[in-house]
Amino acid sequence: MASDNRYDVTSWPVGDPYEDLGEVINSILADVKARQKSTDVDDGGKPGAVIYLPPGDYRLRTQVRIDISYLRIEGSGHGFTSSSIRFNVPAAEWPDLHELWPGGSRVLVDIPEDGTGEESHRAAFYVERDGNPRISSVEFSGFCIDGLHFEADDSGIPAENTYRNGKTGIYVASANDSVRITGMGLVYLEHGLTIWNADALSIHDNFVAECGSCIELRGWGQASKITDNLVGAGFWGPSIYAENHGGLLVTANNVFPRGASSIELVGVTRSSITSNRLHSFYPGMVALIGGSSENLVASNHLLRDNEPWAPFLGIDNGLDDRTGLLRIEGNGNSVIGNHFSEIIDAQGIRPAGATAVIVRLVSGGGNYIANNHVVASDVRSEASDSCFSAQVDALLTTESSGQLAVTTVLVESGSVGNTVLDSGNEIEVVLDRGANAFRPTPAIGNRTA
User: Fold this and answer.
1) Positions in the chain whose pLDDT score sits under 70
2) Which of 283, 191, 287 lies closest to 233, judged by CA?
3) CB neighbours of residue 425 within 10 Å
4) Where is 407: in which H helix or E strand?
5) Quick check: helix, strand or coil at residue 373?
6) What does the alpha-carbon distance between residue 422 and residue 327 come to, in Å, rounded to a whole number?
7) What is the pLDDT of residues 393-414, one digit of tens each?
8) How far is CA 213 from CA 241, 285, 433, in A?
């Protein structure tokens, strides 16, 4: 027996999904609500629905507004491909490219500007419902949300490289429970995902890249996870951002290098950043700030190196090398067993003559920093017009001009009662030894009785 609660946008009688997918999906949602009115029928009543997007290009001119639980919108392929590489290839070469646009089940976000500048107004999918219980189990899976183009701003950067267009992929405005975003592709959006007040949120196995910011958890939240994603923001936005969350799990993500930060936690407590591979062209890769406390940062690989791609040379996130690759403002955090690679051109350190910092403990007490390994090399950077080959060559090159002198751990004077063990030698760690516990990593050739 066919289900009345599974819809195919290409066979729905209202609207044309290829011209305005939003009109079609909103009509389907109205049908679901008209048919599922009772809250208690035979121990059920509102099972929700599945809306299917077959592979194809669907222009979205009207925002999809979701106010029902148990809704799954699914496609048959996340369709991600690098629009940034395409737009930085000379136009004369476009006819020889195998494809020009992302594919799969693809939503083309074409919502017009309304003059307000409100981020939520140009979101492709807007989720909100007042009252109790909170909206629950809204799922997005297996399709692409494409912002199409970036726009010129006052920076002087070519329009397609600004990461600005006022568009958002998914915006969840109200308190929510068990929202799931899996297997999605999001590209060329000013904001990929913006989610407020989340409980038991799962953002898993997505490709969210070439967006101004990728994943933003705002307001407050608990017991959520950001896992196994491929993520990469632009130079002004965070790749992964969360505020006022407890019990957040950020694990096994591969974060690409151009974001202003890889992971930024503000007022986040009792959460974990573990087993991520993080790559950045700038300092300030990971920040635990705003009183972020009792968090575990363990078994991550952090690589900071030089921008090798010609279109983005000279662009940075505005932070100097004293900021640290990891910055902490909070109490009782554990930073254990991480690998840091600082592979940069010493001539480019800012400010000139400064010593680059790896871990900077700005404020707080009771923090435990132990068994971290730092590799610091001075390399002569080379730029290329090819994004792919330039970055691969940079990643695979381990030869250097020499060692780079760094401060592996800097504990500022206002931070007391912290412990630093085996995370740098006597010279590399800077702290008040009368106010903090310290055990240096033995230097080569040192012998103890």
Assistant:
1) 1-2, 381-400, 446-449
2) 191
3) 14
4) strand 406-411
5) strand
6) 18
7) 665 565 657 899 999 999 999 8
8) 9, 14, 40
Residue 287 CA: distances (Å) to CA of 209, 326, 418:
20, 6, 18
Domain range for residue 304? Answer: 212-449
- Rounded CA-CA distance 275/254 in Å is 9
Residue with structure tokens 């702290």? 431
DSSP letter, residue 113: P
Q: Please indicate, yes or no, if residue 448 is contained in any of the structural domains.
A: yes
* Residue 290 shares a structural domain with residue 436: yes
pLDDT for residue 386: 57
Q: Which tens digit of pLDDT belongs to each residue from 123-164?
A: 999 999 999 999 999 999 999 999 999 999 999 999 999 999
Is the domain of 278 the same as that of 129? no
Q: Residue 64 and residue 28: Cα distance in Å, rounded?
A: 10
Nearest residue to 299 (alpha-carbon basis) of 242, 368, 252, 232: 252
First to last CA, the chain: 81
Which of 142, 7, 12 has the alpha carbon at shortest distance from 74? 142
Q: Which two tokens stand for residue 197?
A: 């007040």
At 333, the amino acid letter reads N
Residue 200 · residue 181 · CB < 8 Å: no
At 427, the amino acid letter reads I
Sign for the pseudo-dihedral over CA of 244, 143, 279, 204? positive
Shared domain check, 354 and 263: yes
DSSP reduced 3-state for 28: helix
Q: What phi and psi values does residue 353 have, to the nearest 5 degrees?
A: 85, -5
Strand partners, 272: 249, 296
What's the structural domain count of the chain? Answer: 2
338 and 275 share a domain?
yes
Placement of tokens 């297997």 in the chain: 183
CA atoms within 13 A on the CB side of 275: 7
What is the identity of the amino acid at 196? Answer: W
Please give the C-alpha separations between residue 443 and each of 232, 326, 356, 408, 448, in angstroms, as whole numbers.
37, 23, 20, 14, 11
Neighbours of 388 (CB within 10 A): 11
pTM recorded for the entire structure: 0.95
Instruction: Output the pLDDT for position 383.
Output: 62
CA count, 13 A, side-chain hemisphere, 442: 6
